[in-house]
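Notebook B, p. 112. Complex prediction, attempt 2.
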Amino acid sequence: MGKNLLRKVWDLHKVKTLPSGQDQLFIGLHLIHEVTSPQAFAMLAERGLKVLHPERTFATVDHIVPTDDQHRPFKDDLAEQMIRALEGNTEKHDIAFFGLDSGQQGIVHIIGPELGLSQPGMTIACGDSHTSTHGALGAIAIGIGTSQVRDVLATQTLALNPLKVRRIEVCGILRPGVYSKDIILKIIADLGVKGGLGYAYEYGGTAIEALPMEARLTICNMSIEGGARVGYINPDRVTFDYLKGRRFVPKGKDFEKAVEFWKQIASDAEAEYDDRFQLDADTLEPMIAWGINPGQAVGVEQKLPVLKELKEDEREAAELAYAHTHFRPGQPIKGQKIDVAFIGSCTNGRISDLREAARQVKGHEAASHVKALVVPGSKAVAEQAAAEGLPEIFREAGFQWRGAGCSMCLGMNPDVLVGDQICASSSNRNFIGRQGSPKGRTLLMSPAMVAAAAVVGEVTDVRQFFQGGGA
Amino acid sequence: MSTSTAKIREISGRAVAVRGNDIDTDRIIPARYMKELTFDSLGRYSFQDQRFDAAGKSTDHPFNDPRYQGASVLLVNKNFGCGSSREHAPQALMRWGIRALIGESFAEIFAGNCSAIGVPTLTVGHEEIEQLMKQVEADPATLLHLDLESRTLQAGDSRLSFSLPESQARVLLSGTWDSTATLLEDQKEIRATAARLPYLKDFPYDRSGDQADGDRSGRA
């Protein structure tokens, strides 16, 4: 029997087995940001420790940056303090910092792949649960807490419990208007938000293999929403082509050496898995997470679940969801009026997401009652979009075009919902209060679906709205 | 250099139950309270949006209930702490006074974050947690005594056993839950591992673009 990628990468990076029974793994790339690192640097200082591998550590600022006015000092003094702390810590420890003026700033999970920092066969850690994103390149990428950020800064290693691997086979091919976001929302709906506890998810099959890299990043990004701390896709030609020529990716002969290694690190044909799951892409429809966790999702043409039809252990969460959303059991989700439309985040803030959304809105206008926001995931995405004329398309359609950052995904910056507003959002979490208002309501969907909802003013089937595209 | 941490063998105290599956870390501490450079003042924000309504009025959340003030054990249901990896969540609970959690299951990153600050996450079955919650709700003065070594807990007159991930049990019982010192013990092994990684030795990052930027990326 062969080995899967997780096992190969794990073994390659294993320093030793610790007395606790956990494995100590070397971390090839450590990404840091302003929210979960200052306390870790303070702990280092208290103990007189230094950063062991500053050259394998990269920083940017994303969670707290305002997206309307990015001039310094920020109007929010707390946000200003946080960026200053990161500037100070990275300078003191000689860590590369992609700040607001660098031209490379952006959401940490957008810029890692974009700069070619995230590569197949690496172990990657970041103090953010959406670190699983980088697994799309064939890396084992792990979201960690602040004490573990301290561990990686000081030792470039982590103490980790072994993971099981579930192979998720997505067969068939996506239909127009259906996207990788819909695949992952469907997987989470089927396996549940706790289904991935203890597992890494390996995504494969014809529908996954046909996806371009940016669509793959969306899938791995949301692994954690299904309870899986790690999600990955085996590196292939799509991966190599995506990486070629990116800033930190080796060039010339070194690139060829890299590709040889990347091919070897992929799961063997007869690799063993602890579990398997299969999904058919052919019959998939655009998905909408309507409740208070990302697993509470239905197809756009479906009705919201009636409590008695749900499995017993899903009922309580559904009741809570109805109490929060004030939606009615059995109502269609299509036609649900929205107040805000948000396109962006580490899930769907890449250039292909913005292109797809722009294609929907071109020649249309956002409904007059809808506040619509487009937030590129990075400065590089913003620049590319500008070169393609996307900001004009969005502005003409009444959308606000913003600067790069996490924005309305999480309510840590000025972009927040107000009161009980309903937001069609391309982000990753519909938790109560997630978008900054305790009463706010979040409908998760693909960027194209958000764009269509913004124009119509209510949840709309993008397949009927426009001659939709694929992946 | 290293910080020696206390061995955690027993925890005693009163308990508070926060019912519900899939309670995410955004609910435990909303992101807007994370604009802080230290964890010091987070305790007061635990479950903030559950404890206060839009007008700032206190709700009937157990963390507001005077009978549960001073509780040190938190009783929860399934998948507690899912979502964001923010260590701010266990830090907030710990600074509120929580020293141990007992639940049906915990999200992985959350459980790791708890362990890293010396707060055990014990698991029991559905029936057992229901019984414990009822007992504590009926009599908030009920004293719990948790013994990590024997994996048993005493709640008033009743006694039951719990599970604890083996690795967590070992680091808590041996006082090595603050992992940095343990991880630093074998620097030679760390160097040896780094030395065999193809992406470090055979095809390292291309740094030739570094000088072009106005930022500090050139220094790395």
